[in-house]
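A further point concerns the way the authors explain their paired sequence and structure data. Showing the layout once, in full, would remove most of the difficulty. For illustration, here is how one protein appears when written out as sequence plus structure tokens:
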Amino acid sequence: MVWVALAAVAVVAASSLIGAAVWRLAGLAAPSHVAPIAGFAVLLVLVLPAVFLPGHAWTGLGLGVVLTLAAAAVPVVRADVRAGLADGLPVMFVALVALMLPFIVSGHFGILGMGNNDDWTMHLIVVRWLAHHEIPVRETVVAVGYPVGPHAIAAALTAVGWTAPQALTAVMAAGPILSARAALAVLPGVRRPVNWALAIVAGLSYLGAAYYAQASHKEVLAAVPILGFALTLPAVAEAVRRGGRSQAIRAALVPALLIVSATQILSGGAALWPLGTLGLWAVIELARRRRMPAEMRALVRRAVPTVLAGIVATLILQAPEMLRIVHFQSSHFANEPDGGVGNLGGRLPPWKALGIWLNPDFRFATHLPVLTGLLLIGAAILIALAVVRWLRRGPSSLAAALIVCWVLWIGLSLFRNPYNAAKGLAMMAPVIGVALVYGAVVAWSLRERPALRIGLRAATAAVIVAAAVSSFLTLRDGIVGPDAHAAELRSIEATAKTGPTAFLDQSDYGGWDLFALRPYRPSLLYKVNVLPTRPETGWHQGMALDLDGVTSATLNRFKWIVSPNTPFASFPPPGLRVVKRTPSWILWERVATVPPRETLHARWRPGAVLDCSTAAGRALSRRSGTATVRTPPVIEKTSGWHGYADDAGSTASRTIELPPGRWDLSLQYQSRNPITVSAPGMHRGMPANLDRMGSFFGVGTVTGGGPVRIRVTVDRLGLIGRLLGAKGHTRALNSPGFHALGELAATRHGERPQKIPLARACGRYVDSYTLR
């Protein structure tokens, strides 16, 4: 966590120095709290092409360091940065602490949003590819032109020791920090520390904070140039009005950088937000001067060089990525299904973008609907009040940005799927936040009768406090991915060293955790290296997968196979040996050709009963061959659990009826915290696990001969988490019914495979069979 905070500080510091230099270079009024956003745009635009050059991560880092040091060497730049620290430093510090809340509550660093939004497995692979180019580019989304500006900055940071998850988290955190500081520019005349508090509420507006908490970095970062562009336009207009032709040309630099930086985050379509803001702002300003035609003509004449220079600068800065942007438009990422909802579950209502939602998870309903509804009405009034004031007195560019955001959201809702429409809501979060706090300042200053003024101020304060609480709740309860399974897989990676490898699990992060082994996995969301499963099993997401889930021909393609460590699995075929066994995984080495063998239609069970009362079963039993049989396992369904082991400290239990003898238990589960599984004669701690529900993991051995009671307890949160009121809730979105505990299976302890002729296998539980 500390290393993430330091990386975020490094990105923000570099952005502040470079931004102050660019602001001066463009001839804009200085110093400005918006300038760091321009510096961040410089990093996005220039570091990306640098990491494609020889040296990759080191080249990108070197360029960033050179730009930062060059800016720091200019006295006026240092003076500008110092001038902004009195207000900027406390705001950025508190914003940074707030963004570290998920890690503070969890007590460790991990990947944000694991189990809710697992896209980062793809993004982390991109960061590592940009840093080292270790694997073929076709095995990454870089090959389809995916926008990777933030990934390039993260790749540069990895050159000096930050891990890819730490670096990308830090880059994502820099966005809200810069937005919070930029909000200071909108609230002149407000006394400290009220100004600081309002700026933090604006920069960490609820939906932006919620998307940060689930590691949706594109939406979080794309919002930054949108806000920065709107706040920069008045400074550009002032510079053009006061300066000559040379100044008019220089002033175009910052808007061009912001437009291009948006496309580095979200590809070409992101340019619609700043360009739409520019167009509507121009219309508003011309409308305000419609009674002064001479001034309008003069204004247009002065603006022409700036517009032309902006077009040229944008094209030059965009040139390195232009072909990739064009290529991306034909990819499936840019052409998602019309009904796609991603991880939302349904269309996201627009009012959730207003900065208030009293639920840590923005996708679900609030438990206080009436209160939340009243607060949302108050928020809408304050935002409308801000827009009216901006249109009358300025800066009208903020009103233009807010209107354009809503218009584009309507367009996304009409012509794109609900998942993409929700992105549009998240991208307007800081603009909404700025409007909310600005409207609060306006409402607070209204001169009404004393009684009415007291009521108005109380309502305004309630809305702002609710906005701050909403953001606090989503950050406090942000999910931080555990590292136990990943650490085990990294130890397996260190043992095997090179791939490719078959990974018999549906973990979204398996491709990242076993990066050097180039793992092939069952078909998931990102179909890069797909491991084909047996067609007769009908495997799909949510099912377990073992060595019999793929054909012998598939196994013979790999030297290494990684499978879950569970006795509830098929017996291993000849030709494989165990090289490494961790608490959760087994590394197999193929030492000989795996002979062909077949399975019954067992779905995801380790076997099935050969039913010779059917025509197919009788026909199979009459063929020449052998069957590997075993004692049928005892399987208990998910619905049998009493209680929900989904919150930290909660408990669930069930009873399983077992025949006499020793039995090995295996469990499907998800949990943000470690769990303890206990039964008579058994007490076993299991690591936290937020991989997709499906695989079973071995728990321990119990003695049967009647009912055996199983109890599962989730570990409590640490002291800070408990003091802050966090629940440590595991929603288990990838499991049926959102249950954190899945099926429980028991297999005969120490049982060895038994081979019998197929003719004698009728009514027996068949693990696999071989035909002669």
The longest helix spans residues 293-328. The first strand starts at residue 501 and ends at 503. The CA atoms of residues 405 and 490 lie 43 Å apart. The chain has a mean pLDDT of 91.
